[in-house]
Amino acid sequence: MRLWLYLGSCFLMVFAPGPDNCFVLAQSAAFGAPAGLAVTAGLASGLLVHITLAVLGAAVLLEKFPRVADLISLLGAFYLLWVAWGMWQSGLSQQTAEQQSLAGFYLKGVILNLSNPKVILFFLAFLPRFLPEKCTHRSAYLCLLGVIFIGCVLVGMGTIALLGGSFSTYLQATPQAARYLSCGAAIAVAAIAGWILWEYLRNTLKMVRSKKV
Hints:
Elements: H1 2-15, H2 19-31, H3 33-55, H4 58-64, H5 67-90, H6 94-99, H7 102-115, H8 117-126, H9 138-173, H10 175-212
């Protein structure tokens, strides 16, 4: 029962509106399904880092140095703002799309995943709660839970990428609509960065208030 509950939680997290799935949708709609799938692969690769940290017990470290996770998120937010600015300037012409490398989309996925505070908290605080009582092989079980989550991400985000890619075919035939989506996609990515910055500011205010109390 605990495993089925975890599986449901994984898919709920994948499809719940957030930076990762919105970014995959924006990139696949703008540049095609391969771009969205490359971002998805980057997201999955970033999860390997989270799994490793969870196995090593990084949650204890973050309790002592909580600002480390906030700093990572902050750097990721500024990177996304840079990506949004590039999308706003370049537009979505066919020539621009061809100049984008899949490796670049993959790197964007890795950085976005590593800077997403929702994913950081899930792996370091929420994931260990699904360990069986009196678990004798904690590291192996955490790895298993992590692999299951990666599978959910590949299925869920891959589906989103394919859906966005089907919309991209229409955009290639209508340059005017592509220009509108260029602005929309840039705003969406900037909004993702803004959400991460808001979470950073909110956590900072919490810490300031707790110290005053």
